[in-house]
């Protein structure tokens, strides 16, 4: 195993070779050496990243299973671990928000759902859940925005359409005033 100093030395040699390559002063032998240094330096980092992603995916699946089993406290603990490693994990934030909500922590559930949709706007269920929670909290303008976020992803989502209707909002988009009539 290499110590940190060896990686720093490799990085310095790699930077020097890259600079030489950019300046056009690098021959084929040096290019091969640069490629070898880069592969040698980056391979362990890529393997660690893959391992971390796999572990986070396993923890997220376990957290979801706990959520489905109604063990919200353990689900929250497991999902916190996932989000500590991957704070921008949209699905992890969605499951975390659902666990928090079912545990009765509505303010933090709202934050988790907001993080979920901010990091993965395609999560229709997160948009809808956020809209329903905000609607229950009488935060109607925010609920409307959440339901519209769901419809932007899935225009015929029945839960988002129902949520808007319950709030007295016509879910059909207004015609574009600049559009030419047919």
Characterize this entry briefly:
The chain is mostly helical and 182 residues long. It has helices at 4-23, 28-68, 72-85, 90-103, 106-119, 124-136, 140-153, 158-166.
What are the main properties of this structure?
disordered N terminus, 182 residues, 8 helices, mainly alpha
What does this structure look like?
With 182 residues, the protein is an all-alpha fold. The chain is 76% helix and 0% strand. The chain has 8 helices and no strands. The chain has helices spanning 4-23, 28-68, 72-85, 90-103, 106-119, 124-136, 140-153, 158-166.
Kindly name the structural category: mainly alpha
Radius of gyration using CA atoms only = 25 Å
**Unreliable residue runs:** 1-8, 17-23
From N to C, what is the helix and strand string? Answer: HHHHHHHH
What is the helical fraction, as a range of percent? over 70%
Shape: globular
Mean pLDDT: 76
Distance between the termini: 71 Å
Strand content: under 5%
User: Strand tally, please?
Assistant: 0
Query: Largest beta sheet, briefly?
Result: none
Number of helix segments?
Answer: 8
